[in-house]
């Protein structure tokens, strides 16, 4: 019984395979062939690899007709010609200017900045608006830095006192400071400032470590 079932199964598989192949072959043979476009050997191709000038007078060329929407969007021929003529003769009246070049700080500005930095680092109560600081003994004192003799003109011009009396006092203070330090060289002031932290340019003195009266810096 078993051999008979095997024979019948093989026959069914063979018949099914043959039927499927016949159906596929019939479908392929019955399909319509794909239409192919044949180009004339003497005619140019549809696209060219190099630009070709087109002869507009060639009678074989066919111009594509514009749609109604494109025709409606176009202005009249006279307006187009007038607009193109105006554009050709138009003159650009816009005045252009170069970008501003960043100016480098002058010598006076650098000296003023150095003076303010020196006073700010030396006195915590230093006020750049009036060039004063508050000592421990009270009151206000003018800050005199090694750069003051050179930066005094710019510094005095930049200060804006609130009252005229204060302005007169500041101008007198600057004049006194400038005259008092005029005899001291910049090298001497710089050397004393580096050697003694308590050095005071107003009277060219410093406070000794052992106490006592202030001494002149030699």
What does this structure look like?
By secondary structure, this protein is mainly alpha-helical. Among the domains are: 107-183, no CATH class; 186-218, no CATH class. Helices cover 47% and strands 4% of the residues. The protein has 7 helices and 4 strands. The chain has a two-stranded antiparallel sheet with strand order 1-2. A hairpin with an 8-residue loop joins strand 3 (205-206) and strand 4. Helix 4 (107-122) packs across helix 5 and helix 5 (148-158) packs antiparallel against helix 6 (164-180). The longest helix is centred in the first third of the chain and has 29 residues, at 2-30. The chain is elongated. Residues 160-182 have low confidence and may be disordered.
Pattern of helices and strands: HHHHEEHHHEE
What share of the residues lie within helices?
40-55%
Major β-sheet strand ordering: 1-2
**Could you name the ranges where pLDDT drops below 50 across 5 or more consecutive residues?**
160-182
Question: Rg, please?
Answer: 51 Å
Using the alpha-carbon principal axes, give the shape. elongated
| Number of helices in the DSSP assignment | 7
Global structural class: mainly alpha
> How many E strands?
4
Mean pLDDT: 72
Proportion of beta-strand residues: under 5%
Largest sheet, in brief, is: 2 strands, antiparallel
The end-to-end span amounts to 135 Å
């Amino acid at each position: 019984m078993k051999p008979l079932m095997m024979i019948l199964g093989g026959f069914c598989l063979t018949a099914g395979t043959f039927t499927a192949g016949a159906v596929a072959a019939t479908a392929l043979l019955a399909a319509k062939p794909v239409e192919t476009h044949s180009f004339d050997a003497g005619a140019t191709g549809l696209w060219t690899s190099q630009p070709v000038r087109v002869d507009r007078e060639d009678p074989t060329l066919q111009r594509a007709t514009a749609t109604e929407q494109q025709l409606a969007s176009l202005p009249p021929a006279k307006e187009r010609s007038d607009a193109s003529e105006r554009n050709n003769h138009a003159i650009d009246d816009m005045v252009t200017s170069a970008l501003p070049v960043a100016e480098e700080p002058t010598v006076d500005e650098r000296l003023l900045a150095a003076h303010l930095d020196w006073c700010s680092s030396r006195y915590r109560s230093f006020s750049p608006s009036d060039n004063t600081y508050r000592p421990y003994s009270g009151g206000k004192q003018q800050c005199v830095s090694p750069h003051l003799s050179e930066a005094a003109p710019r510094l005095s011009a930049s200060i804006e006192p609130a009252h005229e009396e204060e302005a007169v006092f500041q101008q007198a203070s600057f004049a006194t400071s400038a005259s008092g330090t005029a005899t001291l060289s910049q090298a001497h002031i710089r050397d004393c400032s580096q050697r003694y932290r308590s050095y005071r340019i107003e009277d060219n003195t410093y406070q000794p470590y052992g106490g006592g009266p202030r001494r002149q810096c030699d």
